[in-house]
Amino acid sequence: MSAASPFVSDVPVAQAHEAWRAARVAAGCPAAVDAVVVPVAEAVGRVTAEPVWALRSSPAFDASAMDGIAVRAERTVGATETRPVLLAPDEFEVVDTGDPLPVGFDAVVMREHVHRTADGGAELRAAVPPYQHVRSIGEDISATELLLPEGHRLRPVDVAACAAAGALELVVRRAPVVVVVPTGDEIRPLGVEPRPGEIPDTNSLMLAAQAREAGCSARVAEIVPDDPERITEALVAAAAAADLVLLIAGSSAGRDDYTARVVAGAGTLAVHGVAVRPGHPVVLGAVAGTPVVGVPGYPVSAALTFDIFAAPLLAELEGAAPRERPSTTAWLARKLPSAIGTDDWVRVRLGRVRDRVVATPLPRGAGVLTSLVRADGLLVVPSGVEGHHAGERVPVELLRGLGEIERTIVATGSHDLVLDLAASALRATDPLTTLVSSNVGSLGGLAALRDGLCHVAGSHLLDPATGAYTLPYVDRLFGPDGTVAVIRLVHRDQGLIVAKGNPLGLTGITDLVGSEVRYVNRQRGAGTRVLLDHELSRRGIDPARLTGYTREEHTHLAVAAAVAAGRADAGLGIQAAATAFGLDFVPVAQEPYDLVLRAEDVDSPQLHPLWTLLDRAEFRERVEELGGYSCAETGKRLR
Ligand SMILES: Nc1nc2c(c(=O)[nH]1)N[C@H]1C(S)=C(S)[C@@H](COP(=O)(O)OP(=O)(O)OC[C@H]3O[C@@H](n4cnc5c(N)ncnc54)[C@H](O)[C@@H]3O)O[C@H]1N2
Ligand code: MOO
């Protein structure tokens, strides 16, 4: 590959690992970090560089396992309830748990089974076998046995066992040193108020923390401007002090993207561009005998690049097996397209709906760090697969315990801020209760419910023919036979989200007609879209007369964001979304927002916390404080 080429290639991940390994060997990078001797108290988290042999036995003597008396077993032979054996004071000795067994005795009788006599003797009503309640020497560990192999990451139980076996100093690999080098003219240290166009250095914080979590010692260098000479200087200095350098950003093809060139100039460039998304333009190489990863600047790319490339190398440097995440099989809640030719790392939320774990994909953008914050699991769509259908079974790596996932309420459908508020309130009441909501529009939610992919479908679908909400659609999809329950969540105002001060003086739907108002619409299948179409049709307005009718956003907040950024003048949505962006709101209609679910699930323990919450006056007050909501019918079962 030409070092000067601005274009990144598409090497498969396995091939990238191989090419990087070969380049590291050729550049003389050490295969492992040095072994050091550390006191056992400081060894947790380190990896053994030598096997640990037991220096002494544990217990080191025969010990009493119970509080009671030490006896000679043969003296108890024949003792029964009716014919107890009486021991004279010199035929037993009182012992406590852990005491050495006194010489001449071979068994212990628990206090509870001993009847002391007035003259200081002891009456036994059962015979005891030899070594009853005695922990014999070496029961736990025998001197000279192999306690731990080489390459074992030490846990609290391991160091305790080492100490018991007399191994008070251990030979371990020292913690690998990771130096993180942030680059970019626009990057500012945390705590400095960023001016327009500037970005706080959140990646260094995250990558250093990831390195520490992986057992390394990590340091963040000063932010380097986009200047190839200064980046080279910083890289060479970091390489001299580190076992791995993470050089952030500048990995792709922009005017100020120098990472690949700098690595090639200062050492060896092995790979520029891997068939993985996010993380595609990653740079792998070595400088001055130190491995270097050019970490793409987008935060999700940065985090995943650490997992995919840095973490396995760091484990290898310590001589340990890479950490693995547990995995499970899940059913996809909705369609997941994926480009052929790259491994697609998709962040998903998980919840159990009846007998299946359901995975709902989160936003895919490499800049959407909250997709990783909210993820319960990671799903890789391999490069040879062109995505998955809704309802397909997929393997998922778990980022959260299955116990929590079992208790997650999965809400799919139209999005409403009240669901977010409910999710937060449920958590506050019980940290094990999670509500996961994903936005696929009202119709999409009902389809997910029909396919067993969610517990509740949030819906606000108006039937233009009857003017009724939700029920006509439920009848059409599920039949009127009562298999489905409908519970009212709230009433909410829908209206035009407009710029602060309503500069165009919009008063309602009719004002949208004409080219001077740039409208931003919701996607097909969204209840808000149905409402707009209804409002247009009952006024006899052809949708084609709205400028921007075909421009679609997928959430109320995205519509508000478009107005806030000045990309649109108006969009139909809820008042809370306008409030969130400091925008104005022109009410158009009030509509109910309902939760549709399987009737048999209404009484399920998983959903119970939600109904309790909807009954709480304090919760209703908080909903109404959001603005544009009424809780007059909240919790009411309509079917
Ligand atoms: N023409 C092309 N453009 C881009 C390509 C491509 O192949 N051809 N790849 C895209 C992909 S994919 C990714 S990923 C990014 C990688 O970007 P860079 O590594 O070059 O990084 P920058 O462009 O400098 O920054 C991207 C983004 O990340 C922010 N950033 C940078 N450093 C930090 C930091 N320390 N903390 C927080 N955020 C950071 C930066 O401000 C930018 O917003 O390139 C695409 N473009
Ligand atoms: O490959 Mo980039 O990391 O998708 O955004």
Tell me the helix content: 25-40%
Strand content: 25-35%
- What's the Cα radius of gyration? 34 Å
Report the sheet with the most strands, covering strand number, pairing sense and barrel closure: 7 strands, mixed
Number of domains: 5
**Which compounds are bound in this model?**
ligand LQZAQKY5, molybdate ion
How far is the first residue's CA from the last residue's CA? 66 Å
Summarize model confidence as the mean pLDDT: 94
Per CATH, the class of the largest domain reads: Alpha Beta
Give the CATH H-level superfamily of the largest domain.
Periplasmic binding protein-like II
User: Uncertain spans, ≥5 residues at pLDDT below 50?
Assistant: 1-6
EC number: 2.10.1.1
Family: Belongs to the MoeA family.
GO cellular component, one term: cytosol
Function: Catalyzes the insertion of molybdate into adenylated molybdopterin with the concomitant release of AMP.
What attributes characterize this protein structure?
single chain, disordered N terminus, 38 strands, binds molybdate ion, 639 residues, six-stranded mixed β-sheet, seven-stranded mixed β-sheet, binds ligand LQZAQKY5, 16 helices, Molybdopterin biosynthesis moea protein, domain 2, Molybdenum Cofactor Biosythetic Enzyme, Chain A, 5 domains, alpha+beta, Molybdopterin biosynthesis moeA protein, domain 3
